[in-house]
Amino acid sequence: MSQTYALIIEDDRKQADIFALALQTADFKTKVITDGQKALEALTTESPDIIVLDLHLPHVSGTEILKHIQADERLKSTRVIVTTADAQVGELLHKTADLVLLKPVSIDQLIGLANRLR
Amino acid sequence: MKVKATMLKNLRIGAKFNLILLLGTSFFLLFVLPILGSQLRVLTKQFGVQRLEEETTVIQNHFADAERELQSLVAVLASAPGLGEAVKRDDEIRVRQILLFTAAPFEQIDEFDLITVEGEQVFSLGEDGMIDEEKNALLTLALEGEPQLGITVKHQASTAAGKDDSQGHNPPIYLTAAVPVYDSSGVIVGALSIGQQLDDDYLAHINFSRSQIHLLLFRGTQLIAQHIVPDHSVLPPTEADLAQIHLTDMNFIDPEAITRAENGEVVYINEFVTIESSGNEHLIVYMPFYVDDEIAGAMVLLFNVGNLAVFQTQFTQNLAILVTIFVILTALGIILFTRRAITIPIRNLAQVAEQFTTGDLTVRAPVGSNDEIGFLARSFNKMADELAHVFADLEARVANRTQALRQTNEKLTREVAERLAVEAALKESEDQLRQVYASISDHIYVTEITRKGRPVNRFLSPTEPLTGYPVEVFLTDWGFWPTQVIHPDDRAFASGQAKRLAAGQDSEIEYRLVRSDGTIIWVRDSARIEPDSETGATVIYGVVSDITERKEAEAALAKAYDQASIASQLKSELLANVSHELRTPLGAILGYVELLKKGVFGSINDKQATIADEVIDSTHYLTNLVDELLEQARIERGQITIYEEPFSLRQIMRQVEAKMLFAAVSKGLTFNTHIEETLPDELIGDPQRVQQIMINLTNNAIKFTQEGSVRLTCDYQDESHWVIEVADTGPGIPKQAQAYIFEPFRQVDGSITRKHGGTGLGLSIVRQIVAAMNGEVVVKSAPGQGATFIITLPLKIAQERMV
User: N or C: which end of chain A has fewer CB within 10 A?
Assistant: First the structure.
């Protein structure tokens, strides 16, 4: 696998599309999941290099997913970029997530960070 | 009249003195004088005997002196130069020349006799030139070398030796001294004698300068010589006195006493012997007359004491006259003295006393002397002073009392007037008070807690405006209020007031009342407690006011407030939701435009890129707006949390600088930060919030400053207090605006908002965060002088760095 794989878990399709397009320009292979439950299911088989995780998700929250990722030994090397519109929540996750980006997320910022985590 | 009687009495006193004096004088003259006279004889005798004793010694010494003188003289004559040679040659003329020449000064020598060793008479000079037996014996003894002294008697040639044949013609007797005469080689060539006749002249010589002493010299019972001195001491002597003694009056001489004296006795005749012719009396002593330690006769000394009888008479007469004169003078003196010292002062005193008794209290007796009379006068004066003083004092006291009485009277009158005035004022005051009570809608009460703890209403406002009950109900039954008037639901609560008052605390509570007509009103019962020092009880002063209207207003207000609170809560939640919902599309817009600009959807020209930037800026602005709204909403909901963790102040300042520098520089402003290098870097606190504060303030500063600079500094103040200052050179903030710039949605000038954008929430958020961090924010500014925001935050220095 020469191409780096980024999984985008984002309920807002437009936002997810933007993240995907941005990461693709930086030569990431991307996949978008808009449902928390589906994301958890996907993560049982897949092991992405980077996960862009929205906290505000239907069915299963981003926080739950973050816990799950951290608990899964197989996903140990996976880097998680949390995106949230809530600065307060973002601060709370500062320690657990690899990166926290406040929405609206700057494209250049996202690409730069993703490249650093690659 | 009284005074005169006193005078007479005093005269009689003087007479008495004089009578006593006369009686004393008579007694003296009749009895004492004769005794004195007779005593005079005894005293005279004692004195005379003593005198005679002294005189005998003196006379004897004089005799001895005369003997030694004679012996000296003969020795001088015998040793006259050339006498011895002349005698050896038997040269009578030469001898005579030498002796007479040498003896010329010595007139008392009555005879000279000089014999050779052969016993031949060489020279003889005397009354008749005879050498009698005694003289020859002396010369003969002298030839043997010893000087001789003795009595020699010149016997009449016509009579047999040693015999006297006729009275009054006694042979002359000489005191003779004989010495040997030597020639130049010291050999006795003869003997020389000189003699001095023991005659009256000789005795006068011996008795020289004696007075009243007569001296007689006897040999055997024959009077040889006598020396009678003139009697000047008592009575002048007459020639007859002397002659009679001399010639006829020798009968007082006691031959037996002379014989005893010639046998060595000294005989004092211890009686006065009167010589009849003169009547003078004498004391007599008989004593031996010694020549060369041998008795050569007897001496008789008579001490003439004069005519004692005459003397005694004259003495007593003179004394009587003197005493009489003395008595008369004394009597006169007494009379004068009593007048001067007693009568006159006493009369004066009596006059003064008379004056004094008639009421003249100022008169005083003259105090003349320091004696009893003076003392009497002083005592009288003292008594007068005392009386005057007492009278004066009495009058003064009467005057004082009268004055005091008058004053008391005036005072009483004044007091009565004052009291009447006070009563009038009191009545007026009461009327006013009644009017005041009538106009007051409050219930006023004064309740006394007796010492037994029972409450009694002492006073109530006369018109009971609150409850509708008559006042008497509360006056008779204190418990009516708490058990009947207070709303049943509030009674338990209201009893707390009674407890606080019982504990001595003032209290004020609000509760409801049920009026007599059943309506309910709210009242405020405020009570003040004070101990009554007089009765020992506690008194409560209270006012119950109707606060129904206020209560209703408050209730309405509370209701409105609650509604407002709910609305505010809803608003905050709405804000939060809206913000979130806004954020999502904004995120999409921003993302797509950025992607567009990056050429993800195909290349774009410069014009399109510029438009993309504009869209991006607007979106950032909108995002910022939404962030602030969100933050504000969170703060209003109380959802603000401050963390405590170590952080680097300098790092935060660098981040702020990195974020804000572009905005500043792009506006043509300089932006710099400063912190002292010596200050500690690692602090404990909330780094996100600190950064938020710095960014908000710096952002604000850049936004409002058109030219100049923005400066961010940090400094350590004290006790873990840090000061963050953001200063700009902008237009400044007017004084009145400084009061509200920290309130939400407020800006100084609406035009600026329009010009610069912004929600007006930045400073409000800063202030609320700072407050949440227990810090404070102030602004120093004036229009045209820029603004400086000063934040003081209690940030602790990390422990490991503190040391």
Answer: N
Q: Are residues B698 and B712 in contact, defined by beta-carbon separation less than 8 angstroms? A: yes
Query: B587 at the A interface (CB within 8 A)?
Result: yes
Shortest Cα distance, chain B CAs vs residue A15, angstroms? 5
Judge whether B467 and B455 are in contact, CB under 8 Å: no
CB contact under 8 A, A21 and B600: yes
Give residue A36's identity as a one-letter amino acid code: G
Q: What pairs with residue B150 in β-bridges?
A: B176
Indicate the residue type of B96: R
Instruction: Please tell me the distance from the alpha carbon of residue A110 to that of residue B669, in angstroms, as a whole number.
Output: 30
Write out the two tokens for B742: 């920290």
Does the distance separating the beta carbons of A106 and B588 come in below 8 Å? no
Per-residue pLDDT tens digits for B318-363: 888 888 888 888 878 877 877 777 777 777 888 888 888 887 878 8
Q: What is the ipTM of this complex?
A: 0.84
Q: Which residues in chain B touch residue A107, judged by CB atoms under 8 angstroms apart?
A: 591, 594-595, 598
> Phi/psi at B111 (nearest 5 deg)?
-150, 150
Per the CB < 8 A criterion, the answer to whether B516 and B468 are in contact is yes
Q: What percent of chain B is predicted at pLDDT more than 70?
A: 88
Per-residue pLDDT reduced to its tens digit, B545-583: 888 888 888 888 888 888 888 887 777 777 777 777 777
Q: How far is CA B411 from CA B201, B418, B419, B423, B600, in A?
A: 126, 10, 12, 18, 119
Q: Give the N- to C-terminal CA distance of chain A in Å, as an integer.
A: 13
Residues in chain A: 118
pTM to 2 decimals? Answer: 0.36
Token code pair at residue B501: 């008052």
CA distance B205 to B195: 15
Please indicate whether, in this complex, the C-beta atoms of A19 and B580 are within 8 angstroms of each other.
no
Helix H or strand E encompassing B198: none
Length of chain B in terms of residues written: 803
Tell me: the pLDDT tens digits for B721-758? 889 999 999 888 888 888 778 877 665 555 444 445 55
Say yes or no: A25 contacts chain B, CB-CB below 8 A: yes
Judged by CB atoms closer than 8 Å, whether chains meet at A22 and B588 is answered as no
Question: B587–A12: do the CB atoms touch at under 8 Å?
Answer: yes
Q: Residues B420-475: pLDDT tens digits?
A: 999 999 999 888 887 887 778 888 888 888 777 788 887 887 777 788 888 888 88
Q: Which amino acid type is present at position B701?
A: A
Q: Determine the pLDDT at residue B711.
A: 92
Longest dimension (CA), chain B: 236
pLDDT band at A52 (very low <50, low <70, confident <90, very high): very high
Chosen from A18, A30, A54, A101 to mutate, greatest number of chain B CBs within 10 A: A18
Measure the CA–CA gap between B599 and A25, rounded to whole angstroms: 10
pLDDT of B229 strictly over 80? no
- For the sheet with A79-84, list strands across it: A28-33, A4-9, A50-54, A79-84, A99-102
B590 touches chain A (CB under 8 A): yes
Reduce the DSSP state of residue B468 to 3 states and report it: coil
What element of type H or E holds B389? helix B372-439
Q: Which of B127, B186, B136 is nearest to B161 (CA)?
A: B136
Q: Does A27 touch chain B (CB under 8 A)?
A: no
Q: How far from B128 is each of A3, B111, B135, B157, B618, CA to CA, in Å?
A: 222, 9, 14, 10, 210
Contact call for A105 and B588, based on CB within 8 A: no
Cα distances (Å, whole numbers) of residue A47 to A38, A41, A76: 14, 12, 9
The mean per-residue pLDDT over the stretch B404-410 comes to 92
Please indicate if any CB of chain A lies within 8 Å of the CB of B691.
no
Q: B591 vs A12: CB contact, 8 Å cut-off?
A: no
